[in-house]
Sequence to fold (723 residues):
Amino acid sequence: MRNLILGIACMLLTYGASSQSPHNLDFEQSDKDFPKDWKKMGTAGYTVSVDSLVKISGKNSLKMECTPENWVWMGYEIGSPMKGKKLKLKGYVKTENVDEGAARLFIRMDPFNRFSEEIKEVNIGGTTDWKVYEVSAEYDPQLIQTIFVGGYLSGKGKMWLDNLILTLDDKDIQQIPVVLPPAKRDREFDAGSSIKIDRLSKEQIADLKKLGLVWGFLKYYHPGIAEGKYNWDYELFRILPHYLAPDTDKNKLLADWIRKPGKFKTGKPARYKEVKIAPDLEWISTSGFSDEVVKLLWEVRNAQRNGEHYYVTLMPWVQNPGFRNENPYKDQTDSGYKLLSLFRYWNMINYYFPYKNLLEEDWKDVLEEFIPKVTLSGSQEEYVLSILELTARIHDSHAFGMDWNGPVYNYFGQRMLPVHVRFIEDRPVVTGFHPGAPDMGLEKGDVITHIRERSSSEIVVEQLKYIPGSNRAAKLRDMAPKLLRTNDSTMVLQIERKGHTFRKELPTIPWEPVYPKTPGTSAFKIMESNIGYIDNGLLKVKDLRVLWDSLQNTRALIIDCRNYPSDFVIYELSRYLLPKAENFERSSSGNMKEPGLFTMKKPLPVGKKNPHYYKGKVLILIDETTQSSAEFHVMAYSLHPNATLLGSPSAGADGNISKIELPGNISTWFSGIGIYYPDGRETQRIGIVPDLMVWPTIQGIREGRDEVLEKALELARKDGSGQ
Fold:
């Protein structure tokens, strides 16, 4: 996921614009030593600043400096849509001693995460004098909400940017007006919703539940709203004061509200084959609305929709939802915006989450439960944590993204012990240490029984509701690094080691995210007894043909998928592994004309007819770190006629992810398409289940053993390998 987050982060720049330009794309406007309105992100070893000495013209250039094994990006955002087809970024770049990485100038278009299509970049290395570089990209205003251009530096060295220009169809973007639809021109509540809710009765909660159902249904079903004629967020703020007022005729108010977006043509709903999930719309008739409101809502349901929508689209090819024109309202968290946050998230999941059928409760009951939790939350931390708890209720390991939010960051702790922890035998166990960590008197295999004088099991029970995860193993995987976070300069642990317990007070360091590391250090190797080993987390498509010359005659092949792939090698490797083409998965996707409807697609094959396919045993290693793309790969590899899956169940979260932005600058994600076996069996939440269960043990961690790999080697050495 680190590459994904990096990809989202990268942003924008410009050439030859004056200081009076609407966009600060020439670095002439600065706040102290930093270019105005620009954003930065990176690892620890970087610096960025405006440079008034090294430049092409004007007052400033942008200087970026990085140390080995680190990276930094600087970016600027330009809103869309604009009319045009081709973007071009041109500008001066100078580098000094760039090594072990590259300096990059790029265009990126967002959202929707179509990285290979949307990111266009040019890479520069070494020491170069000022030179003009150019990069271009195709632009579709119907799909793109935001354009990013920027500079990115990885490895070590220095990079300068200056005199940049971004054009659309060869016209300077500084001179192109952005055509705003009516929804974008509505600015009435930019400074706040003016809604204040201090208490809620049971009756008011029930009424707000009805309002949330109607608000979301109209948002995604009404053709007038789909056209971008209304800022539907602000329409909520307009109706709320009247709706919450005592003695209001709520049915008349709702009837007028339903009519407001205008008239439309109706027709009969289409029929679809292989429906996985049908829209849940029975509430229209069972919620106690007046006959008039029920009639109007059913008319909206039967409206003719053309599949185009201002607030959402289904991405080409993959068909996961891309939510657009959703303002994150970074500084707004009054009562109205909190309620909007709940309504927005709840309805996005209600109509576009492909695994809604796997939820353990009626999703409408969750809406009612969270109305007081979210709306009456006091502090910013309480509000953000209530949203985090809500995201955990969809039971999806892809519902990540909130760790960087300030209140969440503070709740779990801004500092940490530089210790790796994993749940082994359902207990938190020390499995390693951060690079450069001092000797703390801890050992691999130490069991952490208490933290800050509280039992670790008690802390897990308390905090697990804030950990989104498809199954318990995935939740504990993500819970583990949070156990050793704190806001204090020290942390007290009680440790159990070989039957003895002791207490230690240890110094903490500033928190930084720790990503799971692949067990190996190279993409492949030949192990004892002519057994091949592939690290699927390191394997690259470009290297596969050369590697296969060494692997094809091994007696057995171990494919370690306890990682996340760094490349999409599934189809290429499967052509070597499998004797013929075979279906390995099916997917489901949503429907723009009938939100909430999910239908199954045709099965997807891998492999090809290959009489020279790999004849030895194939042993595939998995555990709770095997997630998403890794699970997708495993489903294909396991089709080998002599394959054995061993380890523990995978994370159970597959399908391309979709981003959600909520008031208060909250970002989160979810699985946007459903992934199943060819016969329709579920993978979400269940995960990929091994043929042979092999769990790491505390004793094995103490002894520094990889028990899953050991079992694979044992099976590989046995007769019957097929060689």
Remarks:
- The two ends are 38 Å apart (CA to CA).
- The first strand starts at residue 30 and ends at 31.
- Residues 202-221 form the longest helix (20 residues).
- DSSP finds 20 helices and 35 strands in the chain.
